[in-house]
Amino acid sequence: MALSKVVSNFKRLDRMLGGRTRLFELGLLLFILAIAFFLRVLPLRWGIALSEFDPWVQYKEAMFIIERGWAGFWEFFNWHDNMSWYPWGRDMGRTAFPGIPFAMAFVYFLLASFGLKPDTLELASALPVVYGVLTVVAVYFLGKKVGGSVTGLAAALFMAISTAHIGRTHLGWFDDESLSLPLMLTGYVFYLTAISQKRTMKGTVAYAFLAGLFLGFMAASWGAHKFPLAFIPLFSVFLAVIGRYHRRILVATAVAFAVYTSIAVSVPKLGPRYIFEITIFSGFISLFVLAVFEAASRIKSPETRRFTIFTILLLSLIGAVSLLSLGVLGLPGIKFLSVVLPGLRGDQPIVQSVAENQVPTWSIMFSDFGLTLLLVPFGVYLLLKARTNEDLFIVLFLVLAAYFASSMVRLSLLASPAVAIVAGHAYANIFGKLGDILAQRESAKKKADRSQLSLAIITPVILLLLLTYSIIPSVYGGLPGGRVTLSPIDQGYQPATIVTSSFPARQSIPDWVKALAWMRDNLPKDAVVASWWDYGYWITIVGERISLIDNATLNTTQIGDIAHAFMSDETTAMEIFRRHNVTHVVIYVTHQFVVQGGQAYGRLLGFGDEGKWIWMLRIANQTGHPYRESDYIDQNFQPTQRFWQTLLGQLIPYKPTQTAFGPGHLYNPSQLNYFRLVYQSSPPYQSLAYVYIYEVIYP
Questions:
Q1: What is the pLDDT of residues 398-422, one digit of tens each?
Q2: How many domains are there within the chain?
Q3: How many angstroms separate the CA atoms of 554 and 431, rounded?
Q4: Do 141 and 189 touch, CB atoms closer than 8 A?
Q5: How far is CA 654 from CA 188, 283, 495, in A?
Q6: Is residue 367 part of a domain?
Q7: Which segments of 247-331 does DSSP mark as H helices, in order?
């Protein structure tokens, strides 16, 4: 009886899904989502922790709301944090995007309303995985619009195993990109649905409204929202210019633009003034151009229509340039402009000092996208051959996103969905050709037909084997040496940064965890801790002590002061710290010690402050503290004796020493007058990463 009921329900589901083909498609999609999920939860082996640095401040913001209940959503915008950027503090509600903490707080309250109260750190760690899976779903629907179900499934698979995407949606990556990408892609799906000529005008308005909502919430969550927002008006004008204008494009663009702009300017970090930045104002220009096309569509003479459109477009361009020249319109900040013009990054050492802001090498790009890059040219060819609106949308998205990804390492994430969809379309087409030939195999009687059949089978099989090989972890036979891995398993199987003490190793190195716990339990509540800005969030949020500078890099002058203190002599540094009421100084050092043949050999590895000091010098120099770089670094890019006389050089206990194996660094701490070592995370030569805490002794 029970079995017959199950069978009946299954048949009902089968009919509802439109037959066994749909059921099979759903099964494949669920299998792909399972792959995406398991690849992203691999860091669970090392426990629950947030990765990198920025996710910790997102967690702090979410906790502020959760601790205050539903009222926290409003109180957030009036929150002044006194634990960071001492003595000024930070207006969190006006300097942070609220999307990520608001989403977590809402999920927490929703679960609590059902009687479930999850651990907040566990929830923050798990949400990026959920967002990553949702991104794969969004890519499936966007791919389906381009080439049907097979393209959607192939694109979803490539997105599920995308190294670039896994790197920012794995367990613990509680940051902007994890949520913003599915919001962006869902907005694009609704926009393409809205401009379809199959839609009624009411349907166009409804879908455009949904597109605006998703893109608007993305703008409230992600600093890199500028390109996704500007892309919609840009593509709409592109369609009009190539002769594909119709009224639904104007209506859809206007509705979506109105909604996402209203949300964006409501974010205090952006504010009403944001309308006059070129990102948003480009939407007004695009709407004006589309309105011209709408009006010109009523002109019967083709020559007059073309002349009118060309004249208006030229005047619009001149007007936009004039407004920029007069300062009425603003440009994005130097960090965003440097994506378009990477040469500008040389004038911003704070931006340039971050590894993910560097221009990527070819090996990095190949590692991020893997062998799917081999399919991209063929996929672009197929899309340009078909030239539907959806095809052109993906091609234009790919071209622009690929350029940005080649300009800045972190933007490979932005290109990952476009690469997955284009490669998925190519892969689906190859297997589609195979299916067509196999379906006609009874006609393959001639030798030529047999060779065509063999070729059709061999090509996708080779591609499948290559893709399968790229999934194999390096430890089980991946690329030689494991220096560059294409395996998404390798990318996902990485412990959180705090677990490895920010050292590039796949093992637990608890020095930072121990140091932060000691700081929390032993330093006075009002202690003011100076360190390089990289560790500011950890000190404030995990160590629960006041910091001077952090990863928000809000005050370049204050960062320059701390850089100057580290690069000056002990007496000068002590006076700088006195002005900032500093009680303790924290440095981070990486060092490897080896004993071979009875001889000791040690060397600084460069992943800690012993490698970051060059950026301290450059930032100090930029902020009005003149230093000549050649005095501190020799022609072999090694620090000179002048560096070892600076405060940082003296605080680092491992000093240059000649060993049996050549130049090295052995433990030989300096005797300082105003700085007393009160904590070391590990004894000398016992770890790869060391955290040292000094107390400032004022005369």
A1: 999 999 888 888 889 999 999 999 9
A2: 2
A3: 52
A4: yes
A5: 54, 56, 27
A6: yes
A7: 247-266, 278-296, 302-326
Rounded Cα–Cα distance for residues 245 and 243 (Å): 6
Q: What is the CATH number of the domain that holds 519?
A: 3.40.50.12610
Q: 3-state DSSP call for residue 598? A: coil
**Residue whose C-alpha is closest to residue 425's, from 456, 385, 468, 452:** 385
Structure tokens of 166? 């896994």
Task: Answer whether the bond into residue 302 is a cis peptide, omega within 30°.
Answer: no
Give the amino acid at 507. Answer: Q
3-state secondary structure 535-595: HHHHHHHHCCCEECCCCCCCCHHHHHHHHHHHHCCHHHHHHHHHHCCCCEEEEEEEEEEEE
Compute the distance between CA of residue 315 and CA of residue 236 in angstroms, rounded to an integer: 19
Q: Both tokens of residue 412?
A: 């490979």
Query: What token pair was written down for 229?
Result: 């927002």
Q: What is the gyration radius of the CA atoms in the chain, in angstroms?
A: 28
Please measure the distance between the N-terminal and C-terminal CA atoms of the chain and give it in whole angstroms: 89
Length of the chain: 699
Cα 38 to Cα 45: distance, rounded to the nearest angstrom:
12
Question: Are 532 and 650 contained in the same domain?
Answer: yes
Q: What is the pTM of this model?
A: 0.90
Domain shared by 383 and 531, yes or no:
no
What's CA 221's distance to the chain center, in Å? Answer: 12
Contact 199, 193 (CB under 8 A): yes
User: Is the separation of the CB atoms in 552 and 90 below 8 Å?
Assistant: yes
Distance CA 569, CA 580 (A): 17
Looking at residue 440, what is its pLDDT?
61
Positions of the chain with pLDDT under 50: 1, 442, 444-448, 477-483
b vs e for 411-423, b when ≥16 Cβ sit within 10 Å of the residue's Cβ?
Answer: bbbbbbbbbbbbb
Considering 368, 399, 426, which residue would you say is the last residue of a domain?
Answer: 426
What is the rounded distance in angstroms from the CA atom of residue 176 to the CA atom of residue 54?
9
Give CA–CA dist 683/156, Å, rounded.
49
Cα-Cα-Cα-Cα dihedral sign, residues 367, 499, 565, 526: positive
Give burial (CB, 10 Å; 0-12/13-18/19+) of 669.
middle
